[in-house]
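Next comes this protein.

***
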Amino acid sequence: MPTLETTVIINASAQLVWSALDDLERYPEWNEIIPDLKGCTIVGERVSGTLKQDNTPDIPINPVLTRIVGARELRWLSEAPGGVFSAEHIFILEPTEDGTTRLLHNEVFGGPVADERWPNIDRNTRAAYEKFNRLLKARAEELGREALLLHPATGKDASSKIACSLLRCRCQRDPVEVTVSGPTYHNHLCGCSKCWKPEGSLFAQVAVTPAGSVEEKQNVEKLSIVDAMQKIERYACRECGAHIVGRVTDKEHHFYGLEFIHPELADNGAQPPIEFAAFASSLVESGTSPSSMHAIRRQLRGLSIPAYDAFSPELMDVIAWHRVKLAQSIPTIADSKN
C-alpha cells in the first residue's frame, strides 16, 4: 500500500505535544491544514473538517477514530464506498531521552483511487503534512514557554512567622472582617472548582487553622454558605464573592477540627510560605486548556512548589489513616450480636 511518511523532532514533552494535538477547539489558532476539525476524540467516534493543501481543492474529511493512546498514538480512518479508496492517518509520539518528542506523522492509502492519485498525494499532501508538523512544533514549543498567572501570592516574599490576624473581604465599602487567633498551617495553592480564586488567578490560596480560631467581627450579615451540600461549608461575602472561612461540622470528616481561610485576605498583606499546589489537574475540569498544563507545572517547579493532583502526600496519608481509624471504630456485625 502507498504510505506517506513524515517526521519531526519537537522540543517539548509528549504530553504537551499531545495536548495541542487533541485540543480541537484551539485548532484555528495554529492549524492551517485542518483548521476546522470538530468532534469528540473518542475511539469509534467521527470527526469532521476540511483538509487544506496548496495546489489542491479543499477536501472535506469525516474519518472515524480507530485508535487513541493518550500522549502516544492517534489514528483515524477515511473510507470511500466500495473499497475504492481508504486512508489511515497516523500520529505516533515517541518520547526521547533528552525530553523532546519525535512525531511520526504518516498515512497509509489503499484502493485503486489511491494508486491513481499517488503522485499528487506524494507531492501536495506530503507538503501539507510537513507544514502541519512545523506548525505543531511551533505551537507546542510556544506553549512550553507560556507564562500564566498562578496566584498573586506566588510573586511575594513569604515568612513562616506571619500570622493572618485580620481578614477582610474585597468589598470597598463595609467589608466583612474576621480575626484569626490561631496559627495557620498547610498553606497551599488549590486548583479545585470549589475554592474561591482572585480574579484572573488559576489557583486559590488556602490554609487551615484550628477550629474556633476564626471569629466574625464586622458586617457578618453579608456572609452565606456557598454550597450547603459540601462537607466544607464555605462562607462567602454575597457582594464581592470572596470566601472568608470554611467550616466542617461532620465529626467523621478528616478535616473536622479545622477551619479554612484564604491568607491573601490578610490586612497586612504578608504571606506565609506556599507549601504545595493541590488538585492541579482539576484546572482542566474548570476550563483551563489542557495544553496550558505543561507551562503551569513548569512555573510551579521554577517556584519550588510541588504540584499534586490531590493533596500533598503528607495530607493524603493523614486522610487515609483517618479512614482506617473510622473503620476500626465501627463495631463488626459479629460484635454487635454478642
User: Anything to note?
Assistant: The chain has two domains: 3-144, 152-329. Helices lie at 14-22, 112-144, 282-285, 293-302, 313-329, 333-337. The mean pLDDT is 92.
